[in-house]
Amino acid sequence: MVLDFRQVSKSYSDEPVLVQVDLAVRENDRIGLLGVNGAGKSTLLQIAAGVLSYDAGTVERKKDLRIGYLRQNEALDTENTLQEEIESALRDTFAVRERLQTLSVELANADPASAEYKALSAAYDRETAAYAALDGYTADMRIDTVLNGLGFGAFDRNMRVSHLSGGEKIRFAIAKTLLQNPELLLLDEPTNHLDFQMLSWLEGYLENYRGAVLVVSHDRYFLDSVAKDICELENGRLVRYRGGYSAFLVQKEERVRTLEKAYQKQQEKLAAMRAYVQKNLARSSSTNSVGSRVKALEKEEELELPNPRMPAAHFDFAYDYPPHEIVLELRDVGVHVGDRETGKQLYSGLDLVLRKGEKLALVGPNGVGKSSLLKAVLKKLPASGFIRLGGNVRVGYFDQELDGLSLQDTVLEAVHKRFPQKTEHEIRSALARLLITDDAVFKRVRELSGANRAKVAFCILQFTRANFLILDEPTNHLDYMAKEALDEALRRYDGTMLVVSHDRYFLNSVPTAIAELQPDALTVFPGKYADYLAAKSGENLPAKPKGTEKPESEQKQAFEAARKNKAEERRRRARAAQLQKEIEEGHRTLHALRAECEEPEVTVNYARLSELTEEMEALEAAIDALETEWLSIAD
Fold first, then answer.
1. Which one of 7, 70, 196, 208 is separated from 635 by 20 to 30 angstroms, measured CA to CA?
2. How far is CA 450 from each of CA 39, 194, 593, rounded to the nearest angstrom?
3. What is the secondary structure of 136-185 as a DSSP string?
4. Three-state DSSP class for 62?
5. pTM given for the model
6. What is the mean pLDDT of the chain?
């Protein structure tokens, strides 16, 4: 057992956050921690990390447990260079390396026959063992692997941390935490600011991680890929489910339904027994029967009333009239941001025709300009080429930055300003369906959580009654329950949609096609995210003619191809891990051979020295071959 919570409770200002929580974390566990915003997920992680106290219960940790804890806003030393900061994650390893280098110099200058030499040799052996235990021989290689995987391969490591952007600092903090190689890895929302390639790399890294992982995330696709168990915090209670996110959805529904049925059945039974006792208590002929029923009632252990189902937000996107067949047309479109001299050409030569009823998702690397393309379509950014909206098109726009909301307005004012014809009752009813109720409608927008600000923006979007929705990262601020509700609403919506999203679960659920944006092209892949992955795993397939969507059997084949590709990726990573172990063992053997060469009785035995030299040369060649193979598959 790595970590064991027993009946742990925690309150803030007499408001319970955790209620008698039990959680056992074992070696190699992969646990995803779920809950709506404010459920206590970060609180649980802080208690697990030992940085927050708790009110009742016990928390037991394995002796000398090494914990790596990534907070949502991890602090870095901004005065350090990238190299200095990343090496601080392996401080012990590099300290041992320095001592070994010092000892090597001292050994070279000492008399092999002296007591000093023997003492230095013993110290060198101890430090070498410590270095091997810390995986010191692969430290530089591991740093390169992690930094490359998280997008820092081309960065100058002599630059200061202060020069990184906010998202880059978060990614660098993830790299630092991973390299500490703790026995228990606590991650709070690690997937923010990662593109698809980085997410895929992180999922593979965590899948092969030698230690336990407890991760808070609203990224449903990530949880399906990484988690072997899902723990949900709801009303302060924690329930554990086997499998990833998709399995959790099914199991939770079944569990709640079973609990509700059992509770209802018992209540009916108890009511009938009480009614019988009440009715027959005065009848002497029924004394024995009544007495047995009373005893049965006393023995019956009454089931707890199941937690009431959490209310779900209800999104509804309707429109008044359909658009013409062509909703959006782009021809030879380019976008340049910044001034002419110092600005940047994001892309050029883009062509696209979006037809009525199509739901197209834009994907591409961070910084390629996906949000900028949406703004160009909306005339919020200048663009070259031809951009035309079709006839009868009414556009509704969701901005991930929520810039359209005035922070000084109350919630009611923010909606009423956009739709003054709406009554307060209509506005409050629409907000209530999004779970903004009672006095919350009188709060200033600046006082709201990110999720509730997004819901205000969605309320405005719904009132727009647009037949063409342009959405920029619509799921970003929402918890998993709200995301599920939004997915369902957008699947029901039979209008047209152009959306930018990094939410792979959403991309596998809502769009009818995926468009990959590159600086010089916009390539359309019919189907959902799994179809896009399947196409990308082979050759980039051209877009199919409109109206030729894949039948269900073909979609299953695409999913199967994606799964096979992932299995091959797992085998590749397993081979890389095996090679790393063989390289480490080779270095340990090589050091032992070198140490033997320095022994006094061997230094005068030329035959043995010759044998050892040949062994070391062969071993060095073997290590070179292993490292070459490792480099070829460890990207």
1. 70
2. 15, 19, 61
3. GGGHHHHHHHHHHHTT-TTS-TTSBGGGS-HHHHHHHHHHHHHHT--SEE
4. coil
5. 0.75
6. 86
